[in-house]
Design a protein that fits this description.
Layout: H1 2-26, H2 36-40, E1 54-57, E2 61-64, E3 67-68, H3 77-86, H4 92-105, H5 110-117, H6 125-135, H7 141-148, H8 155-181, H9 196-204, H10 209-221, H11 230-240, H12 245-256, H13 264-277, H14 286-298, H15 316-328, H16 333-358, H17 372-381, H18 390-412, H19 424-430
Antiparallel strand pairs: 1-2, 2-3
Helix pairs in contact: 3-18, 4-8, 5-6, 5-8, 6-8, 6-12, 7-8, 8-9, 8-18, 9-10, 10-15, 10-18, 11-12, 11-18, 12-18, 13-17, 14-16, 15-17, 16-17
The structure holds carboxymethyldethia coenzyme *A.
Carboxymethyldethia coenzyme *A binds next to loops.
């Protein structure tokens, strides 16, 4: 890991002095104001934390270290982890250096398989993932070094060790739990010399070059979405207490398992298959899909895979997946249904939003598809029909964003998170 360490040593001193200078020169300047509505509304849009790994622009979508996502979609997941962490696109040597580390660290202790097998058969795959990560927590290098009394300014090094250890094991954990939970046979070990995405595909038991390509794209697309989303923000907060990377990432993943966040991908495919079931498994017409979408809204449910807290355009990650689908599976009925839904759902949501406003409710701010609307159809095509598993794939990728943010936060010495809450009485009396 010499290359990454060297780069991190260099950028660390730069980012630390930049941070000190900014606080010194502009520490008392106003970054934002907050309204009562925002305090009551999930702090939507409040600028109150720093994240340099990526940015989500409402009109453009995800920008990773200055690169719009679709411009760098051919980077492999291991490349993007280095980019998130260091701010620089990796060289071939950097990638090889990281892959060698994964080769050294990927082996999963036997007790993890035993722990997963002992879990209740109806445990959700996200519960199994979180449990498996927590079962590895005793391996934290940071905890060991902290107990030895290393100085604060070296904490980041051991968070980085833990990050690489965890990333090396995550595909094996996730693929292993897939095989255990869905009776696919014994877990398959990591193959040395094979990249992260292809290894994950292989360990799931799916030997198909196209699927390995999809995995690389999938793992790249879900890697990060700035710092305020539920999973990243949770990981940030837990890590700020110096909980190690295992505690922090597991906590973030528990947030990802929410139906309004990463679990929307399983819900989305469930919803797509529901409408197809009505039409003998065929892709329904646009009219049929329109009335199904209206029915969903009228029954008081959300349309999964549509809407976003920040985005106000079609998610470029969705566009990227649709492009992959057009190239590799244009005739697949599930993919065709997803594609047709894209033609009708935004208008249905816009109409529904108008009615909501007439009733004095808030509008639907974003009627367009997010990442979760497109990914499931592709996974389904390659035989991953167990859609409760989809959030695990999202989580393995998002761990790269959470871990790079965590390491950078420790490198900067970001303090423990502690915003101030106020009561209703305070607002009534003081605002
Ligand atoms: N279907 C129906 N109603 C929707 C909707 C959708 N797809 N998207 C938003 N709304 C509703 C909200 O539920 C909210 O209604 P109430 O005021 O009655 O509670 C209203 O519109 C206003 O919400 P908003 O300001 O547009 O959106 P929020 O920032 O509050 O929420 C999100 C964003 C993603 C939770 C919401 O759009 C949603 O529930 N979408 C469906 C679930 C989904 O796809 N989540 C995945 C997001 C991406 C990810 O994190 O992975």
């Amino acid at each position: 890991m010499a290359n990454i360490f060297k780069k991190m040593e260099l950028i660390r001193s730069d980012i630390c002095s930049e941070r000190s200078l900014l606080i010194q020169e502009k520490g008392d300047r106003l970054l934002d104001t907050i309204t009562v509505q925002q305090a009551h509304g999930g702090m939507r849009g409040v600028k109150s934390m720093i994240c340099d790994t990526s940015l989500v622009k409402p009109g453009k979508g995800l920008i990773i270290r200055g690169y719009p996502l679709l411009e760098i979609k051919d980077l492999w997941p291991e490349d993007v982890f280095i980019l998130l962490l260091t701010g620089e696109k990796p060289t071939k040597e950097d990638r090889e250096d990281l892959l060698k580390e994964y080769d050294k660290r990927a082996e999963i202790p036997d007790q993890i398989g035993r722990a997963l097998r002992s879990m209740s058969k109806d445990s959700h795959p996200m519960t199994m993932l979180s449990t498996a990560i927590m079962a590895l927590e005793n391996e934290s290098v940071f905890d060991e070094k902290y107990n030895e009394g290393v100085p604060k300014n070296e904490y980041w090094k051991y968070y980085l060790e833990d990050a690489v250890n965890l990333l090396a094991k995550l595909p094996g954990l996730a693929a292993g739990l897939y095989r255990i939970k869905f009776d696919k046979g014994d877990p398959i070990p990591w193959t040395k010399g094979m990249d992260w995405g292809a290894n994950y595909a292989n360990m799931m038991g799916i030997e198909d070059e196209d699927f390995a390509d999809l995995m690389r794209l999938y793992l790249m697309f879900h890697c990060d979405h700035e710092g305020g989303n539920v999973s990243a923000n949770t990981c940030h907060t837990v890590g700020s207490a110096l909980s190690n990377a295992y505690y922090s990432v597991s906590a973030g993943l528990n947030g990802l398992a929410g139906f309004l966040h990463g679990m929307a991908n399983q819900e989305c495919l469930r919803w797509v298959l529901q409408v197809m079931d009505r039409f003998d498994g065929q892709a329904p017409s646009e009219e049929q899909l329109e009335s199904f979408a209206q029915e969903t809204l009228e029954s008081g449910q959300v349309i999964p895979g549509y809407g976003h807290a920040v985005l106000r355009v079609t998610d470029p990650r969705f566009e990227g997946f649709i492009e992959f689908g057009r190239q590799h599976l244009p005739d697949d009925p599930v993919f065709q249904t997803v594609n047709r839904l894209y033609k009708v759902v935004p208008d249905v949501l816009k109409e529904f939003s108008k009615k909501r406003v007439e009733q004095g409710k808030s509008p639907i701010a974003d009627p367009y598809p997010n990442v979760d609307a497109g990914s499931g159809a592709l996974l389904y095509h390659y035989g991953i029909t167990e859609f409760e598993y989809y959030t695990v794939l999202f989580g393995i990728s998002r761990a790269m964003g959470m871990l790079s943010q965590l390491v950078l936060n420790r490198a900067l010495g970001v303090p423990i998170t502690r915003p101030k809450s106020v009561g209703t009485k305070y607002i009534k009396e003081n605002v």
